Amino acid sequence: MADKFDVIVIGAGPGGYVAAIRAAQLGLKTACVEKWIGKEGNVVHGGTCLNVGCIPSKALLEASHKFVEAQHDFDDMGIQAGDVKMDVKKMMARKDKIVKNLTGGIAGLFKANGVTALEGAGKVLSGKQVEVSKDGESAVYEADHIVIASGSVPVEIPPTPLTEGLIVDSTGALEFQETPKRLGVIGAGVIGLELGSVWNRLGSEVTVLEAMDSFLPMVDSAIAKETQKLLKKQGMDIKLGARVTGSEVKGDEVVVKYTDANGEQEQVFDKLIVCVGRRPYTQGLLGDDAGVKLDERGFIFVDDQCRTSVPGVYAIGDVVRGPMLAHKASEEGIMVADIIAGHKAEMNYDAIPSVIYTFPEVAWVGMTEQDAKAQGIEVKTGAFPFAASGRAMANNATEGQAKIIADAETDRILGMHIVGQHAGEMIAQGVIAMEFGSSAEDLALTCYAHPTMSEAVHEAALAVEGHAIHMANRKKRK
Fold first, then answer.
1. Parallel, antiparallel, or unpaired for β 379-385 and 401-407?
2. What is the pTM of this model?
3. Can 167-276 and 351-463 be said to share one CATH topology?
4. Most buried pick, 26, 140, 169, 265, via CB within 10 A?
């Protein structure tokens, strides 16, 4: 029998590696199992987020946005940039370097905190044992506690089987070495819009095919409507109610068939990205006698504190219910490590922010106005456009708005929604406000620095009662 640990974490993504580090910091003998093989043939940490998700996509989004700014916006500011060109291969190499630095950084954090890194595929066995297999060899480890953080993988659909270099998932879309002339994207969710934005900025003719009739239904309807308008203005052709029925590879082209309100349609692309969601990864994860139960959708069943059906075994992140977000996984990892160490810990699932890193960014936390209506909650709202913001004008970023939703009776903030430059940074104000049970009046009474983009949040809070200063108010002052 190999070593025994207080905690074994399976998966070194943003949930797993954070859980392992926290557990070790709390004095628990901790190991973390990972099998992800990087480009150089070695095991790398960071999971989807660092390797093929959050971080590489943001590197490409930032580079492509700067390219568009240099092409179209610098001249407005008096900057003569000349004929700006993008070296796609160099952009990709920079992305790879960032990923390598961060994944290597986790290995350093493990060493600094005393976490034992186990290389291979982890499998939960009965009796809180973990089998780690690599290259045909395996070892079994005992643990007092197991944390499953195996993450998720892209969903594939029968009409568009992946074909190397032509029909790819989100991972493949991060590896293009040149800009496709005609790019198809299946799915108008977060990933589809971000990847579509990257290549749209670099010159692709981007068509997004979305089966649903509504655009970003999880976002407040006013914010979603404005976002759709802005992306269309940038050149993205977003087709709603377009259900893909088949595809055919013809040489270096992909012919996609879909149906919409006008019947059967057909469109030809040079590349096709399939972004229809992700599913929990449990392949080979659970032994037959592990006792860990899955729900009807294949997620590991857990309670509010991430306990599975087996005492001492926890599961966090994308493999359990809730939004598939890196920061949600990390917070669950911290909560579970604290619980294992004997501390009282819980997580507020009503205050998890979401961000779409298009330009402008879209960010939200808490309820949408339509959520509140569906639950029979009477609300009052306040919104403020960045077009009326001095800092937004100076930044050449006047598109979008900030919106606050508050309980009509108590004034408690129920949600915040922003589309605008740096929305992903500003949404933290809404998260903090909700964590502290703030009212809209609390934000309205807060002194904000001037000039800042965040002043739009302040004005939105003031607007809840019709008291916005820099906007004509429709409500009567009290």
1. antiparallel
2. 0.96
3. no
4. 169
